[in-house]
Amino acid sequence: MTGTVRGDGTGAGAGRILRWNLFIGGHLSSSVPVRLVERTDEGQLVWLETGTPMWRTGLPRGAHLRDIPPEARPAHGYPAKAGRWPRGSALIHQPSGAGHAVFWFFGRRQTFDRWYVNLERRTHRGEDIDVADHELDITVAADRSWQWKDERSFAEKTGHPAYWSTEEAAAIRAEGERVARLAEVSAFPFDGSWCDFKPPSHWTTPARGPAPVRTVL
Predict the structure, then answer these.
(1) Residue 87 has what DSSP assignment?
(2) Cβ proximity of 50 and 33 under 8 Å
(3) ∠ Cα 62 118 107 (to 5°)
(4) What is the widest separation between alpha-carbon atoms in the chain?
C-alpha cells in the first residue's frame, strides 16, 4: 500500500460496502457506509463520500456525544437517527495493528485539501469497522505542517474508566508523535500518494442500510 492508485475498482474486494462505526466513550456516535478501495497485509483503504446517507446519535439539539459524561448517558446508548455525512469526501488509510487512521480529505472537484490523523482503536467484525475514538487528533496541511487537535478534552478524559488511563494516554500521544514525524519527512502516507485519487465512475453512493443494532461497545 505505497500509493499506486488502481482507480478502476477491480482489485480483490474493491467496491465492497463496509460500515465505519465511530464510538466515543463506548457509545456509538455515527455509522457510515464506506467502500473498500484496497486491502493488503499492511492494512486497508476505504472511501467515504460526502453526503452519504448514514446513522448518527439522536441527541438534544446542539449537543455532542463527546461532551456528555458516559455516566449521564442511557445504559443501552442513544437511538440512531438518519442523516448524511456532513464533511468532505475522504480516503481513509487504516494500517494493520496501528492505533491511528489517516484521512485524505478532498474538496470541490475532487481536489486534495488536507490530511487528518485520527488516533483510535479499531476492531473488525465482518462488514463492520468499529472505531473507538481516542479524542486526540492531528491535522496535517498540504505543506505537511501539523498541529494537535483536542488536547484539552483528551486530557480531561484521561483517567476516566470509559476512556483511557494515564499510561494509555501516554501511548496514544506517542502514536500521534510517531505519525507526525512521518509528515515532517514527507514519508508515506504524507508523500503525495493517493492525493489524486478519484473513485471509479461506476461506484454509486451507498445506501443508508438498516439502523445499527449495536450502539454500545
Answers:
(1) S
(2) no
(3) 75
(4) 47
pLDDT tens digits for range 162-210: 999 999 999 999 999 999 999 999 999 999 999 999 999 999 999 999 9
Q: Report in angstroms the alpha-carbon separations of 205 from 16, 116, 200.
A: 12, 23, 11
3-state DSSP assignment of residue 205: coil
List CB contacts of 40: < 8 A, sequence separation 6 or more.
1
DSSP 127: T
Write the DSSP assignment of the chain as a string of letters.
Answer: --S----SS-STTTT-EEEEEEEETTEEEEEEEEEEEEEETTEEEEEE-TT-EEEEE--STT--GGGS-GGGS-TT-PPEEEEE--S-EEEEEEETT-SEEEEEEE-GGG-EEEEEEEEEEEEEETTEEEEEEEEEEEEE-TTS-EEEESHHHHHHHBT-TTSB-HHHHHHHHHHHHHHHHHHHTT-TTSSSTTTT----TTPPPPP--SPPS--B-
Count, in order, helices (H) and strands (E) of the chain: 2, 10
Distance CA 186, CA 208 (A): 36
Residue 123 binned pLDDT confidence (cut-offs 50, 70, 90): very high
What mean pLDDT value characterizes the chain?
94
Read off the pTM: 0.93
pLDDT the model gives residue 117: 98
